[in-house]
Structure formats: C-alpha cells, structure tokens
Amino acid sequence: MTRISVKVDGTTYQDEVEPRLLLIHYLRDRLGLTGTPIGCDTSNCGACTVELDGVSVKSCSVLAVQADGGEVTTVEGLARDGELSGLQRAFHEKHALQCGYCTPGMLMAARDLLREHPHPTADEIRHALEGNLCRCTGYQNIVQAVQAASEQEVSA
Amino acid sequence: MTDQATEREVGRARPRKEDARLITGQTNWTDNISVNGLLHMAILRSPMAHARITRVDVSPALERPGVIAAFSGADLAEGLGSLPCAWPVTEDIVLPDHPPIAVDEVRHAGDPVALVVARDRYAAADALEAIEVDYEPLPPVLDLEAALAQDSPLVHSDKGTNSCYVWPLKTGEAFDSVRERAEVTLTRRYHHQRLIPNAMEPRAVVVTPLAASGEYTLYSSTQVPHIVRVMMAVVTGIPEHKIRVVAPDVGGGFGSKLQVYGEEALALAVARRIGRPVKWTESRSEGYLATHHGRGMIQDIEIAANRDGKLLGLKVDLLVDMGAYLMLVTPGIPILGAFMYPAIYKMDSYDFTCTGVFTTRTPTDAYRGAGRPEATYAIERIMDDLAVELGLDPVELRRRNWIGHEEFPYTSIAGLTYDSGNYEAATDKALSLFDYDKLRAEQADRNRRGDSVRLGIGVSTYTEMCGLAPSRVLRDLRYAAGGWEAASIRMLPTGKVEVVTGTSPHGQGHVTCWSQIAADVLGVPFEDVEVVHGDTKASPQGMDTYGSRSLVVGGTAVHSAAEKVVAKARKVAAHLLEASEQDLDFSDGVFSVKGSPDARKTIQEVAFETFTSHDLPDGFEPTINAEHLIDPDNFSYPHGTHLCAVEVDTETGQTHIRSYVCVDDVGKVINPMIVEGQVHGGLAQGIAQALYEEAVYDDEGNLVSGTMTDYFVPSAADLPEFTTERTETPATSNPLGVKGVGEAGTIASTPAVVNAIVDALRPLGVQDIRMPCTPERVWRAVREAQA
Amino acid sequence: MIPPAFDYARPDSVDEAVGLLAGAGEEAKVLAGGQSLLPLLRLRLAFPELVVDVGRIPELRGVREDGDTLVIGAMTTHHDVIHDPLVRRHAALLASATATVADPAVRHRGTLGGSLAHADPAADLPGVVLALDGELVAQGPGGRRTIPARDFFVDYLQTALAPDELLVEVRLPKADDWGFHYEKFHRVAQAYAIVGVAALVRRDDGHIAEARVGLTNMGSTPLRAAAAEAALVGAGDAESVARATEAAAEGARPAQDMSASVEYREHLARVLTRRAVLAAAGMG
C-alpha cells in the first residue's frame, strides 16, 4: 500500500492505495466520483479522460500513485456553483451527445484543446479529438459544439 | 393559473432534457451502482474456439484473498436453463442448447467456463488466474460454405449438421421464367464482414437480492428490460413477479443490448446462491468476445432486366453466420432483410433463400439496421453494376424502376405495403445539393488525365422497414412475442404530468420527444412533463427499444394516451362548466365554452378537481389518467437518397470521402435536431462498415481484432462533414405521420461509399472490393485489374 | 481489465533508480509515462514484481544544447517535445513526427525515452531517432554509456539496455539544414502506422547531397532504408527520386498482420519513401 494525496475537483483526499490501482478506479470506486466512465482497456476510447495537473490524460492509463500530490479535474468539477461551463452549454445546445457515455471525456479533451488553441478550425478540432471515440453522434455536432464554445469565449 | 403552452412543441429543435445530467457527470450507469456488501463477479472464458472441457478446478481460486465463491459451469448447471432464442424462424430450425456457462464443451473463444465472486474487482481478476481448466481441442468451424459440407466438423455434434435453417420466400413470376425472358442478367457475390457493435458503455449487471422474500432487482445495461424480465424468469425459474429489471442510464446499444445475456442469468443465479449483491462489468476486450456481433453474411445475388433498364426479377441466396449459439433473435436478423432486397423498385419476380450456419465464433444478432443494411447493400451495389452494363447513369436506372410517388400505397414484390414515399423529391434534392453533374465532370477529367487519384460517385436510394412491428406479422414470421407498445399518462394533482413509456431509451432522446408529444396534446408546458422509463416496477408494460420502433410505436402510444386524458378531462370540465362536452373547445390546455370564452377550465384545474373528486360527474371513475397500448397495422418505411464522393489514391489504396450528401424522408419530425443527430450517427456506423471495421478471426478461430487497438472504430478525424437534408412525406400508418430514423443512416451509407470507390476504379477494371475497403484491398483490386 | 499486483518505487534520482533496478534484476519494469506499459499491464501481458516510476526525477526532463548536439531528457513528454523551441529548430523532424503519436492525452503522459525503450517497431519515434542518427545514453551501476540508435534496437520490444540500466537521455546531432518529413500511413487516426517513413534530406545545389530514411513497422526493429539512401545521393528531380526510392524496402523484413501483407508493406515503403523524400527535399 502506498499513501497518496490527491486534490480532485477542489477537495483533497488522502488514501492508502495499492500501487496498481488505476486512477479511474480510484476516482470511481474509492471516491465515488462516478461521473467519469471507463470505455476500454487499451487507452483508445478516451471516455475516462480527466485533467491532471492542467492537462488532459486518460485516467485508465495513469496509476493513482502517479497522481500523488497532483490536482485532478473531472467532468463533475466543470460547472461552478451550478453554472455550466461554455463547453457544457454548447454540447447541450448543439446536441453534441446522445447516450452521453463519451461526453465526460469529450468535454475534457475539448477543454484541453481550447486551452492550447482558443480558436481551432473544424479540422483541428477533429484531430484534437482523435483519441476520444463516440459511437452515437458521428462527431459532427461535437465539432460544432466545440466551435460554438470557442466563439462564446471570444465574445465573453 | 398555471402557464399554458401556446407554441407547438412538435417540430421544434428542443435541446434535450436528458443532457443536464450527462454533461455534468451525474449519471447512473450500471457500473456506477454501489450497495452495501456488493461483490464483484469475474468470468473465466475459453481461450479456444472449440474444445471439450475435461476438468475445471475452481478450488485454488477460493484460496485467494477476498474471494467469496467460485463456480464451474457444472456447479451452476442445476437451476439454470438454456438461454432463449425467441425467433425460431422455421418449424424445423435446429435449436441447440445454450447454457449461460459451458459445462462440457466450449464453442467459441470467450465462452464462459468458470466464475469467481470477490470483494472487489481487483481480487476477482486475480482469482480468475488461479482456476485450472483442461481442454481437449476440437476442430473449429469457420468457413460458411465448408461448414455445410457432409464431412465438416460440427459445432453441435448432437445436431448432426451445421445448417441451422433454410428460409425461402418466392413471390411473383418464377425467377427461372424471368431469367429466360431477360435481356440482361448479372450475378454477384457480396460479403458482409462481422462487425462488433461497440456501444461506448461496456455491458454491466448488478443484482441485489432480498433473501427473505425471494425478490431480486437486476440492473442491466440493456435495451430491453421488459424482455429481460420475462426471460430471466424462464431461465432461472425465479417467478417473474419476484424479478424487477432496471435499465439505468444505458450508454448506447445499437442492437448489442437487445439481448438476454448469460451474464444476466449468471449474476442472478450467483446472487441467489450466496445471498449477496453481485456486480459484473465487462472490459472492452472481454466484450469483444462476449457481446454479440453483427452481420457476417455471404450474398449471392442475381438480377434480371431488359436493355432499357426495366427490372424483371431478383434472386438472392444468403449464407448467414449464426455463430456458436442462437441468441434472442439471431435467426431472424437476415429475415428482417428478406423483404427489403427489392427495395424501392418494381419487378415481377423475387426469389429469396436464407441459410443459417453455425460456426465456432461469438454469436451474431442485431446490429444497427439488422438485416436491412445487408439487403440495401446488395441491391444498391448490383444496381450500380447493372447501370454500367446497360450504359445508363446509375440515378437514371433507379428512376426507371422506382415506385412513383403517385403509386402509393404500393405493395412490393416481397409483399410489403409501402404506405407513402416520394423517391423523386428526395433524389432531386440530393442531386442538387451534391452538385452531381459537376462532380461527374471532374471525374471524367481525372479519368482522361489518368490521374493517380481517382474520383468516384456512389449512389444509394434506399428504403427500409422499421417500427417493429405488427404483432400478427411477427406471428407469421414465428417471432415469439408481439410488437405492441404501451404508454400511460398520470396527471398529478398540481398539474404536472408523468408519462410512463414502455420504450427504453439509451441515447435516443425519448424523454425530450415524448415530452414534446404529450405537451402538445395536453396543452401543458414542455417542462411540466416528466418521462418515466426503463424500470419494470415503474413502467410495468413495454416492448422496449430496437428496430427504429420507439417513436413509431411508443411515441404514438404516448400521443393516443394523451388524447384519452383529454377526452376524460373534457367530461370533468363539461361538468364543472355546466356545459355539454360538445360545446367545449380545447386548445392550449384550456377547455372553454363555445361562445363564452370566459367560462374556462385549464387541464391542470381539471386534474386538481379530479384529485379532490369533490365535484365529479355522477358515476365518473375519479381519474383522468389514461393508458394506451398500440399494435401498429404496418411497418414504417423511411427512405432517402444518399450520394457520396470518394477520392481514391490508386498508388496506396487510400480512400478519402470528399463529400457526403443525404436527403432522408422520415415522415413528420418531432425534433429535427434529434433526427439529424440520429442520421449523423447512422452514417458514421455505415461508413465504418464500408471502410474500417472488421472482426478478424485467424484459422484457429481466435479473434485477432481482439481489442480496440485492432478494431478500427473511426474517430472524428476519420469521418467527413455530412450534408443532411430532409423531405417530409408523412406516414399514413400512424396518427403522428412519423417513420423510424435510428437505422436509416447506417442502412443507406454503406453501399453509397462502396459504390463510390468502385465507381472511381471501374475505368481501371475494378468491379468489386470486399468490405471493409482497406487500403490494401483497394490497392490489390487495382493491381489485379491491371494485371 | 485489471493490472496484476506489483511493488512500486518512486526514486528521486537516477542513481536511486538504477540501484532499484540492479536490486530487482529481470523482474523490474521502468514506468516512464506509462502509455505503453499500463495497457500491457491491464491486458495482463506483463507481470513485473517491481515497477520503478521514474516520473519524479527532474534531471530526466527537459531539452538542452550541447554544442552541435541536442540533448533531450528521456522523460520529456511528447507534448513537450512537440512544443519545445530547441527541438523545433534543431530536430524539427522529431517534433513533427511526435505530433502524429497517438492522441493529445497520450502525448501529455507518454515520453520520448519511454517510447524508445519500449522499442515497438510500429511506434513512430524509434525510426525517427534512427533517421536523425541519434544516440541514446544509458546509466547503469557502472556509470553511463552512449549507444548509437542503430545499435539500440535489438529485436521486437528488445533494446540494448541491460535490466539494470535506465535510458536517461537522447542525443541528436542538430539537423538545422536538413529538409524533413514524416509520412505516416495508418487505418484510422489513432492506429499504429502500417508503415511510416521518416526522411531527412540535405540538398546541395539543387541535388540531394545526403538522405537519411528511417522506416517504421518494416521489421522487428526500426530500420534505415540504406539502399535507397545511397541511391538518392545526387538525385535532382522527382523522377530520379522515384527511381532511387524503389530500393526503399531492400533488406526490410516486415511482418504480415491484420492490416497489411508483407508485399503491401514493401510497396508502401517504396511509395511513402518517395513521397517523404520529395516533401523533405521540397520537390513535392
């Protein structure tokens, strides 16, 4: 067992964990933060994407011990005081989700993109999301939502 | 007074009610469910395609820390029946035994052989490795044609054959006779690869037992909670009324969760045995073996026509890969396509035969489109070839044969009565959006120059049958259940509305659309409607969600139930307003007396008056709640025209979709944004079959594309931007005028893409490319044609 | 799926890491960014007794110059490589090829050293470092040694690193004057390359003075297309480049798998080498 301290969505947790415990299982099974789902076992699908120390990571491919001392933001930490983020609003307004299983990862990946490229083209968005699979939407509305969110941020 | 809805909801692009939870992570996927004392089940699966089990020893697993129980198939055999097949398509179909966990023989890689139950998923995964199993290998059965040979090894040796069934349909003039008088005949063989549905949420099951009363709640990532409930009673012997099935948030299905799975029965059996709650969650790669696959078919098709393009008849022979067992509707999938090969075309003869074949692979069953993509692919591919043979433009050939809009209702050669359609309108619109003539000019130019990058144009003018289904038709097809759907509406005392539906959404947006439908009929605000679904306790009656049926059948049921509420409310309002029912107008949720508009009662006021029941008409049953079950008279027949332009790099075989235009006619639209989303997603899956995806097996029957790294689900970077438009020809077979939309994009797009690739390469001598059209296959086709 | 259990150590220095590796022998695995190792563990294709996490050793990160050589710490992430101004100036081929590795989230965790030490011939960076004539610096109990990239990749997933050695840095001769291009051919955006070609070209008076071509997924290790490189010298137009690159698959022993046959891979190597060289030479 290894002692870790991780700040998740603003709350600091200290726990004893097995070194092999995946960050995603730590979030879901130990902290009960089930907003972030698991979609594969090969880090292809991106459903489990969270932010670790300011950048997007696939939490199925990070050990909880590797996040020790770090700061994690999940989909559950995006809205502030009940106020949705621009991306969350845009996903809703553009119908960028159907079953919603990929949505937490998509939101985190898109957020990462907009941090680095505040005004991406449609093509840049598509490439930035290449590690996040969606089976419902055909991606078109996701691309539009990310674009809409980037424009909102310009006007804001 | 409560606000009344004044704007019509139906037809509005309402952002969805469902989203609020999904975009904030406040979800309830089955794997999220946690209860005190929850144990985790893990399943040991066969590493071999076919083998006799000579020994299973689970005892070493029991010594691992945190392990509560471990069972072999034999340990669980008592009290676990065979998994059901609800669609024995012929009287003499071969129905093999299908134990949820293998006892003496495994028949596909991934067949369960033992399981453990442990404190957490980590302990359960570790303990699996301690289980000892000895296998005696048996020969795999993989090739559909070889499997039917006399000397083939058998998947089910007790059955004496690998042939599951032969299902014929012959209508009109005998095909031999039209072949004789035809000026042109073409024969083709097409292959549909096996596909893995890949709903983003892997399957999961949680069972919570109440030992004292023998009651069980089964949470499952399923499309069909009502069907699962019935079948769990049958398989486990637990009385149906003691089983509650809940489909919580379900992360996509595409047919893969239209199933009654062994793991559901196993979790139930184990929870019953040890009296503790149990969870099982599949990993993605486990799901690739354990969740049913789709397609897997060889099609031999022959078309007969005259030189002027007039079609005379069609002959279709199918060999269909059932996999190792018959699951819920495995044998019926190609039969759903049987009626669709003639598609939108008029002809005199149709001769169809389907043979189901057992193999030692994961069972197949419904995957988005289920039978109809296969049919549409075959007819639309061969129509393009016929056009070339006749020297006609492919669109022109279709024009000369399709059913004119003035000819509806039209009974197709396969016997279906298409209620409505306008193929001309959809095609004209698509051609204009696509800029068809300009692309043809560019194509000709590239061909002239001998450009190494060719351009091809693919056409697909499709229709399909969906909205499953008239129960009597299902009876005639030997399906074991009906096709009705249920809805009930509860008017709450405060004027809010609960719609209870028997459909079970997993991404389709039923909560939003059913709210729109009910809000309009009842004249209440959209926000005042809640939709209850996916729990056999809260929604006791339903036939669930698949086959693009939910709106056509379930949405219509909501509409009719709401009309019943209004009819009852009218009686109460008439009584309260001291008027006759006939003298009441009802509009925007308000009953008013004709000629005296101030004498009015809102439907919410009526709901409250009914709740108190202080002043109801004599003899009035004190409720305005209503229930409606509907059994449709007919299927619904969406149609449309899809056009695809593909650039093909002949040097590498790489393909690139340059533009994709589709004009779909799904009848009246409840929510255009949701319809568009359904089309987008359908296109993505149909294109994925054409270009990317395949469940690849090696000669021993191992799944080679066994993880998401090797099974190529396309990402945003791999798919084009789509141009989607609609025409609107209302269905006449339901009061809403709606048709299904969930599968249309998938059905139409696969042949559009492959037609485009072949069209690009035809000048080089290429006639066909097997799906998926991988770069290597495209390159080889070019090379072989040039050789 | 669930990784098997292992012991875990997170050394603060290279010396400490090497000591841990020396103590554990063959049973230890180095955890760099984890983007290759964790999927292997989850699929239970590896069962290390000890995982040595080198993610918190500051000296392993970062990019610096050493005369004519660019020195990249083994634990520098793909993301940092792509955005590093020194890499972009002196080893732009590496920056552009790294941008095609997996996806952004994986590039945030995955590291240059981790990718090279994993030595997957289907991965993009081994062939690139080979083309750049890179050297790899390993530290073991006996100190540091420098291994030329051409000697580093021994076989499928095997390197010249001893079990008690840690890859600490990658040294690349500056390639400021070289034209470059990485041509990746794959089934879907995040799939491994069926074939990848890393090309560096130095031109002199309109003709190719020197070409270096690294091949991805054309054998059990990354390869240099030596015959094509030799034939390219002096090529001055697209036609001569095309002739020279016909030799691109010579000596390659590619595998047959689900995505491609041997023959097709050889064909792709020729076509993609031609395209990569033309692009690198500015002749495309």
UniProtKB/TrEMBL annotation, chain A:
PROSITE patterns: 2FE2S_FER_2. Residues 2-78 form the 2Fe-2S ferredoxin-type domain. The keyword Electron transport does not apply. Keywords: 2Fe-2S, Iron, Iron-sulfur, Metal-binding, Oxidoreductase. InterPro entries: 2Fe-2S-bd (IPR002888), 2Fe-2S-bd_dom_sf (IPR036884), 2Fe-2S_ferredoxin-like_sf (IPR036010), 2Fe-2S_ferredoxin-type (IPR001041), Beta-grasp_dom_sf (IPR012675), Diverse_Oxidoreductases (IPR051452). The keyword Aminoacyl-tRNA synthetase does not apply. It holds the Pfam family Fer2_2. PANTHER family: OXIDOREDUCTASE WITH IRON-SULFUR SUBUNIT. This is (2Fe-2S)-binding protein. The lineage of its organism: Bacteria, Bacillati, Actinomycetota, Actinomycetes, Kitasatosporales.
UniProtKB/TrEMBL annotation, chain B:
Keywords: Molybdenum, Oxidoreductase. It comes from the Bacteria. The keyword Electron transport does not apply. Residues 24-139 form the Aldehyde oxidase/xanthine dehydrogenase a/b hammerhead domain. Pfam families: Ald_Xan_dh_C, MoCoBD_1, MoCoBD_2. This is Xanthine dehydrogenase family protein molybdopterin-binding subunit. It comes from Streptomyces spinosisporus.
Automatic annotation (TrEMBL), chain C:
Keywords: FAD, Flavoprotein, Oxidoreductase. SMART domains: CO_deh_flav_C. The keyword Flavoprotein applies. Coiled coil: none annotated. Residues 1-177 form the FAD-binding PCMH-type domain. The keyword Cell inner membrane does not apply. This is Xanthine dehydrogenase family protein subunit M. It comes from Streptomyces spinosisporus. The lineage of its organism: Bacteria, Bacillati, Actinomycetota, Actinomycetes, Kitasatosporales.
